[in-house]
Structures are given as C-alpha cells and as structure tokens.
Amino acid sequence: MTNPLRNLFHDQPNFYEPNLIHMRFLTGLQPSGQLHIGNYFGAILPAVQLQNKGEAFYFIANYHAMTTMASPDELRANTRALAVDFLACGLDPQKAVFFAQSAVPEVNELAWILSTVCPMGLLERCHSYKEKMARGIAATHALFAYPALMAADILLYDSDAVPVGKDQKQHLEVTRDLAGKMNDAFGADLFKLPEPIISESTAIVPGLDGQKMSKSYGNALPIFGDEKEVRKLINKKIVTDATPLEDPKPTDGSIILALYKLFASPMQYDRMLDQHHSGGVGYGQFKKDLFEAYWEYFRPAREKRAWVLAHPEYVDDVLSTGAARAREEASKTLSRVRRAVGLA
Ligand code: ADP
Ligand code: TRP
Fold first, then answer.
1. Which CATH number does 215-301 carry?
2. 218 CA distance to ligand 2 centroid (A)?
3. CATH number of 24-204+312-341
4. Side-chain-side CA neighbours of residue 49 (13 Å)
5. What is the distance in A from the centroid of ligand 1 to the CA of 6?
6. What is residue 13's predicted lDDT score, i.e. its pLDDT?
7. Any idea where the domains of the chain sit in the sequence?
8. Would you name the residues annotated as active-site residues?
9. CB-based contacts of 317: which residues, under 8 Å, 6+ apart?
10. Contact (CB, 8 A) for 308 and 14
11. What pLDDT digit, counting tens, does each position of 182-192 carry?
C-alpha cells in the first residue's frame, strides 16, 4: 500500500478516467469536532481520491451541524478546523470546489421547494432522525427536515454521484424520491437522480475498544492528535490479553493488527503478523510499532496542516473562491426550478 498522503506536495497532473470525466461528485461533512481516522478512511480519503476522477463539489455542512450544536463559537471554530484539516488531508482546491454550506444560502430556498412535495411519512421513517431523538437530541423541525436540506444540497449542484457512509444511504433514497416527485410534478428533466457511492469495501474502522470508531464512543484515534496524546491513547485504551511475551498472540479480532494494517506497508504488516504467530514480541512493542506507523502515515498531512494553519488567508481564499463557484452553479439551478414551479 502506498501512502496517499505522500504525494501531497507534488503537483500531479490532472488524471481523468474517460468514463468518469463528466461525473460530478458532491459530498458534505459536518463540522462536529476533532476528526478521527474513521472519518479519514471512511469519508475524507475517498473524497480526495475522487477529486481526480471528475468534477468535485465538497462542502462543510454547517447548517446541518446546527441541528445538534448550539454554541456559535463552537460552530465557527469547528467549521474552520474542518476546512483546515480537509485541506491538510489532500483536498486540492484546484480540482475540487470547496465551500461552506452556509455560503450558498440559496440551498434553503431549494430545501423549501422540495419540502412542498415531501411526504411527512418519508421523513418520519428516517433512521438517523429516530436515532438522534433516542440519544436525547431535541426533536426540532430542523432535525426532522434535515434530509430535505440534504436533498437540496445534492440537487442544487446537479450532482451525479454522492460518496457517503452507509448511515447516509437512506438520505440518498429520500433525495432520489424527492427528485422524482419534482420531475413528475414540474417537468421530467428538472432534476437528475443522483447515485450514491457507498463503498462496501471501506471497512468500518474499529475504535480503540474494538467497537466502531466514533467520536461519541470515546474510542477514537484523532488524525491530528499530538504525539504524547496519541501514544497514551494507544497504550491505555487498547486492551490486550495476558499472553506472556514469549508465547504466540491471538490475531483474530486484534485491534492493533486491524489499525496497523491501515498505516503499515504490506511487508511491515506481514512482519507483525508473523511476530504474533511466532511469539517472542510483546504487546508493548506492537503498540510502539502501531504508533510509529500512524505517525509516519500522517506526517505529510501534519506538515501540510502546519503550513495551512500559518496561512489563514489561504483558507479564506479557498473558501471564498469555492463559494463563488458554487453560487454560480446554484443560481443556475435555482432559476430553472423557480421557473418550473411558478415562482419566476
Ligand atoms: P462519528 O461516528 O464519529 O460521529 P460521523 O457520523 O460524523 O462520525 O461520520 C462522518 C463520516 O465519517 C461519515 O461519512 C462516516 O461514514 C465516516 N465514518 C465515521 N466513523 C467511521 C468509521 N469508524 N469507519 C469508517 N467510516 C467512518
Ligand atoms: N448528512 C451528512 C452527514 O452527516 C452530511 C451532509 C449534508 C451530506 N449534506 C450532504 C453528505 C449532501 C452528502 C451530500 O454525514
């Protein structure tokens, strides 16, 4: 496996696969706190890889984040932090249109228009809404209508394909449903029906306790943690058994091996696997190797991040250029829709 972050500083020529050249990919990420390696392998890396395969529109879903976040300072800081981290992880603003959702307020108008054809039952069935209510998040209108706003995000930019995690699959179905209803009511060609890209091969990254890694479970390994913090997380939070150092170690369900595989070369991984089988190497050493592979893997991104943090004007510039480009596209779609529904 080659580290996709290694090439960050090299200007790669735009590489297009002919069958994908006209595809427009769009995805949004909520600015909901420190990014972890589950977010990286499940969402950020696939998005960064797709920017070379077509047109990419990527945004920070800060309107959506308001459904679960009440602090303005936190929302502002997280939005900024996500912009910095996404750029550090390889989002290339020469290739992808990158913007904050709220920089294109037109999306709210489209969400309203879509909501006029959106049956209540469709939203009532959404797992994400039910799951958030069960977690005690206030059942506001915004939380309920969240999928209609997400549909507007996608349809506003005439997106062909939307890379998302499995948890968002149902929201893509709602989007397609609403696009179809709009086309039935107002003209067959009003909206393209977007395809979800749900990578079954993107395995769920396990957390330090073996459950799915999630910021809500306290089991996450941050992408940009500091050295001491991450060493401590790996040492303290990955629970190992009492196999003596000289004995073979179990490999099934090993969290160390599962995480190491994400960062190490195949040769390094095979070596650790052999050491599990043969015995003679302790968990302390495996954890050290895991930390080192993690640290090395994210080195280019860490360096890029330090540069981005030192150039706040670069981030402002990327986001405002992205927003202008996104708004151009949004206003075209919105005029078409306004005409179709009788608002213009
Ligand atoms: P969290 O579970 O930490 O709250 P989010 O729900 O905000 O994470 O997820 C943001 C993106 O990261 C989604 O696309 C999701 O599919 C992806 N993601 C989150 N956790 C993981 C994981 N453990 N493995 C793979 N992808 C993940
Ligand atoms: N709901 C998505 C999430 O929580 C974020 C999101 C908002 C999104 N709008 C979108 C993703 C449009 C894809 C397309 O992860």
1. 1.10.240.10
2. 23
3. 3.40.50.620
4. 12
5. 23
6. 40
7. 24-204+312-341, 215-301
8. 132, 212, 215
9. none
10. no
11. 999 999 999 99
